[in-house]
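A brief tutorial aside. Many learners find it easier to grasp structure tokens once they have seen a single protein encoded end to end. The record that follows does exactly this for Inorganic pyrophosphatase. Read the sequence first, then the structure, and try to relate runs of similar tokens to stretches of the chain.
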Amino acid sequence: MTNLWEDLETGPDAPDVIYAVVECLKGERNKYEYDKDIPGVMLDRVLHSNVHYPSDYGFIPQSYYDDGDPFDVLVLVEDQTFPGCVIEARPVALMKMDDDGEKDDKVIAVPDEDPRYDHIQDLEDVSQQQLDEIEEFFETYKNLEAGKEVETLGYEDAAAAKDAIEHAQDLYAENFE
């Protein structure tokens, strides 16, 4: 069985076009996580707060970030896909975040082959409303979990997202190759 974190490349043209492995679905409260030891997607928990994911959310293969996990990616989609779906995605922004004292940044991406997103190439192309909704979700989704504290630290552009992806690829190579 293919391990989507270890066996799949970071992308067909990383960092410009990456693969995003979907774990959590737009509009849902279920927090799925890919378990590389199975390998498969498992239900980790149901969000304690009455919020839902603003778009499909998952990780970038063959990446490892400063929080000790695969690098997180939120792919802006019109309709949810399914856990385990692989999306060819174009990074357009980086949301900086601190999760319980750990750097836990998120790549914001769009499907590379969806013409509805052709015009979104960089941070300034994403509507302020959508950016606010994403930030609000990540600021509040752990509020009702005891002892959890999250702080969003603003957005950076597509170039910063691509630099962070290269950093995550380097960390993966250092730790797992």
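Self-check: DSSP finds two helices and nine strands in the chain. If you spotted this yourself, you are ready for the next section.
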